[in-house]
Amino acid sequence: MATWKMFLLQDSASPLMEQLSFFHDHTLMILLMITVLVGYLMSSLFFNKYNYRYLLEGQTIEVIWTILPAVTLIFIALPSLRLLYLLDEINNPLVSMKSIGHQWYWSYEYTDFKNIEFDSYMIPTSELKMSNFRLLDVDNRAVLPYNSQIRLMITAADVLHSWTIPALSVKIDATPGRLNQISFLLNRTGLFFGQCSEICGANHSFMPIVIESISPPFFIKWVSKMSET
Predict the structure, then answer these.
(1) Among 111, 205, 108, 95, which residue's Cα sits nearest to residue 161?
(2) What are phi and psi of 215, to 5 degrees?
(3) What pLDDT does residue 53 have?
(4) C-beta of residue 33 within 8 angstroms of C-beta of residue 90
(5) Cβ atoms of residues 181 and 149 within 8 Å
(6) Where in the cell is it found (predicted)?
């Protein structure tokens, strides 16, 4: 979860988010090198007193400053394309969960198990406990096992929504009449908060998402308990 004075990305909770963080650092390092080089060249042009009145062309330097940016773009493009394909890859899921966006709450259905479906509403400020987070906590959290491949299927019942959790590198649109899917893996326990990132109406800011990541044995107990109710 993002906190005050946080300048970097959130701590990753999935392998894909780790790779995205590495790519972010890799790209910023290249940008820093370009910024330092261009800044040095500009400052040297401003402050040196050298001039050459007969200089008309410099084919060597022109070839160099054409090839170097192309090579730099290749160093950025190759890992970026690799990540794009990894993000779209659907592996064999152990658990499937369906999420339906409404104005303004989420519904969850565990399609692998019988009779497990519930709505998830934001907890009003007047009903918050000391351990709850304002505008982020919900009454019914979506529970998932860690170290298990998860398939999320998502749609909407009314307008466009977007199911987004930064720590998991998950952002997928919920479109009425269309079923989208995405695959991810949780690599640790914890609570992971997200929000709808598609402007979907007056209460768009008040339909948070909370994923509770627990161990597979506890997840089986939770499923057994929910099936009985």
Answers:
(1) 205
(2) -70, 155
(3) 77
(4) no
(5) no
(6) Mitochondrion inner membrane
| Band of pLDDT at residue 33, cut at 50, 70 and 90 | very high
Q: Which residue has the tokens 């998860």?
A: 150
Which H or E element spans position 209?
strand 209-214
3 state DSSP class of 184: strand
The string of DSSP letters for 115-181 reads T-EEEE-BPPGGG--TTS-TTT-BSSPEEEETTSEEEEEEEESSS-EEEEEGGGTEEEEE-BT--EE
| 149 phi, psi to nearest 5 deg | -75, 125
Judged on CB neighbours under 10 Å (0-12, 13-18, 19+), 211 is buried
Tens-digit pLDDT profile for residues 151-184: 999 999 989 999 999 888 888 999 999 999 999 9
What pTM does this model have?
0.82
Poorest-pLDDT segment among 25-34, 47-56, 207-216: 47-56
Per-residue pLDDT at 1 exceeds 80: no
Report CA 107 to chain centroid distance, whole Å: 20
CA–CA separation, 193 vs 85, rounded Å? 25
Q: Where do we find the tokens 């190759």?
A: 78
46 CB contacts (<8 Å, ≥6 apart)? none
